[in-house]
Amino acid sequence: MTPLAEKVVQDLLHAIDTDRVVLPTLPEVALKVREAAEDPNVGVAELSRVIAMDAALTARLIKVVNSPLLRTSKEITDLQMAVGRLGINYTANLATGLAMQQMFQATSDAVDRKMREVWSQGTEIAAISHALCKKYTRLMADRALLAGLVHQIGVLPILTYAEEQEDLLANAITLDQVTARIHPQIGERILKVWDFPADIACVPREYLALERQPAAADYADIVQVATQLHAQRQGQQEIAVQTLPAGIRLGLNNQPDPAQDQSFWDAVEQSRTLLG
């Protein structure tokens, strides 16, 4: 890294350690939905009432449940029916992801564009993660989707900090270096503050560790492979995911290359409708 990038990294880490950088908070509706879903006594009707307080989220969930990936022979037009179709946990994870979009906005045009780029990439990784999970694992696809959405959540406070630092904001290379260096540990810290489960909270830090060796395939593996596939799709990398330890744990070494499998990308396109 450049000397400026190294200085910014140290300043940011110190500011976070001394609570001078405010970590982002989940939107209120997402907090309420997650709190309700964690109550073992909450049923579909109660969770539906919580979600119904946000008209936009209500409309998006009904749209999702009627998407090609989830729809049944009869169109669902009622929120309670939609929650019943999705289930409590699936609804909570999906609602959290959908509500998070409003966090990726800023007051300055430059930072706003960057935040929207991060969100856009997150939705792509989330869709690929969802499709990977369904095709190759017995893990929960809704959790894989959420893991994909939050894998770069640590970028948010960095960009918020950059808004107030003209030198940093004007230097795209330095900003990218700073972001790449520290967003993983900041992201993990944010998700722990949000009380996300450990198997998702570790994703921002673990998805970049190509040689990691967990006991079994997990959500960090899925996001790691999804990130590599997305990069290949953009012509940025040539790492064969079947040779990655994560790819082997997912069983990709015994399957057709998903990067070349049109049926897989069709599944990704269907998964993308959950966030559209």
TrEMBL record:
Keywords: Kinase, Transferase. The keyword Kinase applies. Residues 23-210 form the HDOD domain. It comes from the Bacteria. Pfam families: HDOD. Coiled coil: none annotated. Gene3D superfamilies: Hypothetical protein af1432. InterPro entries: HDOD, RNase_Y/CdgJ. GO terms for molecular function: kinase activity. This is HD-like signal output (HDOD) domain, no enzymatic activity. It comes from Pseudomonas oryzihabitans.
